């Protein structure tokens, strides 16, 4: 036994050496791989002349008295230094800051961004926020040539803009690729004007697709770890074939610099917007005329939909295209114009991208069965006004209504006094909520006094007894939740699923 030990030790030492050699081989290959594919340089060289800098200026009123601060592009390394210097220096009269006691004087502010040429006739795509409110816009070509540009059209909802300028020489234009074909981990290249350093090339991978970061109604960003910084806005994101697959629009960063969380509008969206802006100077989006909400697991269980999917129709516009097509509140849209609808955002994007006036098939689930409806789309009118929820004033002098409890709610018949107290329109029918148990599921789902229950389990109700009867029956049937159709005072509907056990 003892004689075998030296041989075993020698074998272990040899194995250790072999493992060390193997590890060294693996480690030595990492730096070479980390540089990325060899094609990056070739691609960048091919497309860089199509990438431009966007310079804008705007006249603003500013207080005089402390001397003019040099106009530096946002993100410039010297911006913070000059900002501190001019704000903290003493101006005339000894006042600190130099801006007290002075007169308002017009001055120019400058900013820089990025863009790219999509037509050799001088058509440029950039972000709307790069050129918003600008009095003058200039396009700076890769060789330094500076040309004045004008706005063809903008779309605030996707933060895109199209510019046009007169080419001083033959231009290089780039084409859009198919962003839907991007794969996670695929290499991409960002070219732009970060911190005023024009013609900067960075590379990274596609970190995620279809990101919704609550920046707009049609969020579906490409996430990338390619370095994107201030000044990159409006610049292109390329695949290795030199096709534009996105427009770099924003970053998430606590410092203002790149931490590997950059977001680009996908080319599929950009191409459609650019086409319409060139044709019409504005966006003409499709309109279905419904209000929709998420199909939660509880709502899906109540509607016998497995798995939870689609967009739940909470309301139908009386003047919209969905009304004559027979789409009703409670329908769940699972397919639109041949495209699957996974959630409400999907439906919003698909409808908006569909041509106005086109007849499409809409597949809905109604009471557990699939039905197909044909709808001719209308045009969505832009409305940036936010609808305010009517306040529900307290009126302690009104006669206390007769109430009944169910589902953690105090329920009462809709009387004239209650309509007046909670500002309920005459067109709203159902049972009014006069109180909510703070520890109930209803409170968690944000039901409140003044809400009106219109339907329970897709059946209309007119009094509290109807609701209690329906809930008791669902309990006997072993249901875990009940689906309520709830209206506010203005008649706007939403669905709420509450636990019944």
Automatic annotation (TrEMBL):
<keyword id="KW-0732">Signal</keyword>
<feature type="binding site">
    <location>
        <begin position="231"/>
        <end position="233"/>
    </location>
    <ligand>
        <name>substrate</name>
    </ligand>
</feature>
<dbReference type="InterPro" id="IPR001940">
    <property type="entry name" value="Peptidase_S1C"/>
</dbReference>
<protein>
    <recommendedName>
        <fullName>Probable periplasmic serine endoprotease DegP-like</fullName>
        <ecNumber>3.4.21.107</ecNumber>
    </recommendedName>
</protein>
<feature type="binding site">
    <location>
        <position position="159"/>
    </location>
    <ligand>
        <name>substrate</name>
    </ligand>
</feature>
<feature type="active site" description="Charge relay system">
    <location>
        <position position="159"/>
    </location>
</feature>
<dbReference type="Pfam" id="PF13365">
    <property type="entry name" value="Trypsin_2"/>
</dbReference>
<keyword id="KW-0677">Repeat</keyword>
<feature type="active site" description="Charge relay system">
    <location>
        <position position="233"/>
    </location>
</feature>
<dbReference type="InterPro" id="IPR006311">
    <property type="entry name" value="TAT_signal"/>
</dbReference>
<feature type="active site" description="Charge relay system">
    <location>
        <position position="129"/>
    </location>
</feature>
<keyword id="KW-0574">Periplasm</keyword>
<dbReference type="InterPro" id="IPR009003">
    <property type="entry name" value="Peptidase_S1_PA"/>
</dbReference>
<keyword id="KW-0378">Hydrolase</keyword>
<dbReference type="Pfam" id="PF13180">
    <property type="entry name" value="PDZ_2"/>
</dbReference>
<dbReference type="GO" id="GO:0004252">
    <property type="term" value="F:serine-type endopeptidase activity"/>
</dbReference>
<feature type="signal peptide">
    <location>
        <begin position="1"/>
        <end position="34"/>
    </location>
</feature>
<feature type="binding site">
    <location>
        <position position="129"/>
    </location>
    <ligand>
        <name>substrate</name>
    </ligand>
</feature>
<dbReference type="InterPro" id="IPR036034">
    <property type="entry name" value="PDZ_sf"/>
</dbReference>
<comment type="similarity">
    <text>Belongs to the peptidase S1C family.</text>
</comment>
<keyword id="KW-0346">Stress response</keyword>
<dbReference type="GO" id="GO:0006508">
    <property type="term" value="P:proteolysis"/>
</dbReference>
<feature type="domain" description="PDZ">
    <location>
        <begin position="277"/>
        <end position="368"/>
    </location>
</feature>
<dbReference type="Pfam" id="PF00595">
    <property type="entry name" value="PDZ"/>
</dbReference>
<dbReference type="GO" id="GO:0042597">
    <property type="term" value="C:periplasmic space"/>
</dbReference>
<keyword id="KW-0645">Protease</keyword>
<keyword id="KW-0720">Serine protease</keyword>
<dbReference type="InterPro" id="IPR001478">
    <property type="entry name" value="PDZ"/>
</dbReference>
<dbReference type="InterPro" id="IPR011782">
    <property type="entry name" value="Pept_S1C_Do"/>
</dbReference>
<feature type="domain" description="PDZ">
    <location>
        <begin position="388"/>
        <end position="489"/>
    </location>
</feature>
């Amino acid at each position: 036994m003892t004689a075998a030990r030296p041989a075993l030790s020698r074998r272990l030492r040899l194995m250790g050496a072999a493992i060390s050699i193997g590890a060294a081989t693996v480690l030595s290959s990492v730096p070479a791989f980390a540089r990325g594919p060899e094609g990056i340089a070739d691609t960048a060289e091919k497309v860089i002349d199509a990438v431009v800098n966007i310079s804008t200026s705007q006249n603003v009123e500013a207080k005089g008295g402390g001397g003019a601060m040099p106009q530096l592009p946002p993100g410039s390394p010297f911006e913070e230094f000059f900002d501190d210097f001019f704000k903290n220096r003493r101006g005339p009269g000894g006042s600190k800051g130099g801006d007290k006691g002075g007169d308002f004087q017009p001055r120019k502010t400058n900013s820089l961004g990025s863009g790219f040429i999509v037509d050799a006739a001088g058509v440029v795509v950039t972000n709307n926020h790069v050129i918003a409110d600008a009095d003058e816009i200039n396009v700076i070509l890769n060789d330094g040539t500076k040309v004045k540009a004008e706005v063809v059209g903008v779309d605030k909802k996707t933060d895109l803009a199209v510019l046009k300028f007169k080419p001083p020489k033959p231009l290089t234009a780039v084409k859009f690729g198919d962003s839907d074909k991007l794969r996670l981990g695929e290499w991409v290249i960002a070219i732009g004007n970060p911190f005023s350093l024009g013609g900067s090339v960075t590379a990274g991978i596609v970190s995620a697709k279809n990101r919704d970061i609550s920046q707009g109604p049609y969020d579906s960003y490409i996430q990338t770890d390619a370095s994107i910084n201030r000044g990159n806005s409006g610049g292109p994101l390329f695949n290795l074939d030199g096709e534009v697959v996105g427009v770099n629009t924003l970053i998430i960063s606590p410092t203002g610099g790149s931490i590997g969380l950059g977001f680009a509008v996908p080319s599929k969206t950009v191409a459609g917007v650019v086409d319409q802006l060139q044709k019409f100077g504005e966006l003409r989006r499709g309109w279905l005329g419904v209000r929709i909400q998420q199909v939660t697991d509880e709502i899906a269980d109540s509607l016998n939909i497995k798995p939870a999917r689609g967009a739940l129709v909470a309301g139908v516009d009386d003047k919209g295209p969905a009304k004559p097509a027979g789409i009703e509140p409670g329908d769940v849209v699972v397919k639109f114009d041949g495209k699957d609808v996974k959630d409400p955002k999907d439906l919003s994007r698909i409808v908006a991208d569909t041509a106005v006036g086109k007849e499409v098939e809409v597949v809905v689930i109604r009471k557990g069965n699939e039905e197909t409806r044909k709808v001719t789309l209308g045009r969505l009118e832009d409305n940036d006004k936010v609808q305010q929820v009517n306040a529900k004033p307290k009126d302690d002098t009104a006669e206390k209504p007769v109430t009944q409890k169910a589902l953690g709610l105090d329920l009462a018949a809709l009387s004239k006094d209650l309509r007046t107290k909670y500002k309920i329109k005459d067109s709203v029918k159902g049972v009014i909520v006069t109180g909510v148990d703070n520890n109930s599921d209803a409170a968690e789902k944000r039901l409140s006094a003044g809400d009106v229950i219109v339907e329970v389990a897709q059946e209309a109700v007119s009094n509290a007894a109807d609701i209690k009867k329906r809930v008791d029956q669902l309990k006997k049937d072993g249901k875990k939740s009940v689906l309520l159709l709830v209206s506010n005072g203005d008649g706007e509907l939403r669905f709420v699923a509450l636990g019944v056990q």
